[in-house]
Amino acid sequence: MSKIIVLIGAPGAGKGTQARLLEERRGIPQISTGDMFREMKGANTPLAQEVQATMKAGKLISDDLTFQIVQDRTSRDDCRGTFILDGFPRTQIQAEMLEQLASAQGKEISVIEIDVPKEELMKRLTGRRSCSVCGEIYNIHSKPPKKDEVCDFHTKIKLTHRADDNEESASTRLATYNEQTKPLIDYYEQSKRLKKVDGEGELEEIYAELEKMV
Ligand code: ADP
Question: Is residue 45 within 8 Å of residue 148, measured between CB atoms?
Fold first, then answer.
């Protein structure tokens, strides 16, 4: 049976980095709600502007809009089999929406929590940089680019610092995670669909652990 693999974990836990690796090496499509919302940046509509302002403040986008983009994206051909969700669900309502989506698509939900201690998260968030061309993610402390401030693959492009990775928005995101998303871990644990990886340590070690679970 095809699966919907949900990566769950606090902002900065490394969901995006690991999901991108799984996509690259195993060919499993990665569906990231955060990336899809960030892609709306170019659109000059009131909705796109509202999304950008909400993200910048570190708050959540509405469940309905979020589900709509997940539903649209996962109805494409590349999502007929197993795919990875990175950043969804983040609320109890979204988790219910996902149950319906999974049963409509005839798939089982398999959740992997990437667990990182609280103290480490803020450092990761404020040190994060990314390439605006290919989306490659770096960290000035743990995964610096080969050359200062430029992408390894796009050496003319200066890396960017996400608008919501400043201390204030990052602490709002961490608080929102604790209040709204963390309870989902219990929910999936109770229904025996939860696996856990230790998200501290070498990126490749974490990947190796994760790969065994998918
Ligand atoms: P992180 O997990 O590091 O916070 P993401 O890139 O997953 O970063 O998400 C960035 C922002 O996008 C969130 O702070 C929120 O504003 C919005 N977002 C992403 N996924 C969701 C979701 N499932 N529900 C509501 N908002 C979301």
Answer: no
Residue 142 DSSP symbol: T
pLDDT at res. 23 = 97
* pTM (2 d.p.): 0.91
Give me the residue label for tokens 């402390």.
Answer: 141
Q: Are 120 and 200 in contact (CB under 8 A)?
A: yes
* Arithmetic mean of pLDDT, 180-191: 98
* Nearest protein CA to atom 2 of ligand 1, as residue: 11
DSSP secondary-structure letter at 161?
-
Q: How far is the CA of 95 from the centre of ligand 1 (A)?
A: 15
Residue 95 Cα distances to 35, 142, 147, 186, 207, angstroms: 19, 32, 41, 12, 25
Closest C-alpha residue for ligand 1 atom 12: 34
Distance from the alpha carbon of residue 140 to the mean position of ligand 1, in angstroms:
22
